[in-house]
Amino acid sequence: MGTAARPSFDTDTLRRAVEGRTPETLLSLYTDDAEIRVVNRNAQPSHPKVLHGRDEIADMLTDVYNRDMTHKLEGCVVQGDRAAYSESCEYADGVRVMSESMITLRDGKISRQIMIEAWDE
């Protein structure tokens, strides 16, 4: 009697969504009750921006991926129910943004994410 394989995180879909600027595809990688904590210059570690559920996450992804900028997935590592990835972005005017994400997976989808962002000033 074999054991059922756990769904794995789809890194190919992650790359296509990030680099193709398709927030709908990226949103498909999140659980319905997912949570994202964003830490950056405006949302510091003691008061991160917290997004709850697919609707709030969809709003953020739509905003970010509809901007006039490029996105590149620099790397992604998956180990068990954890993953991490780096994303680099560049606005049309040359301003660059870097983000690092640590994620918790449930059934092959993102259930929790901590994203740390830094950008040119």
From TrEMBL:
Domain SnoaL-like: 16-112
Pfam families hit by this protein: SnoaL_2
Protein name as it appears in the record: Nuclear transport factor 2 family protein
Protein species of origin: Streptomyces muensis
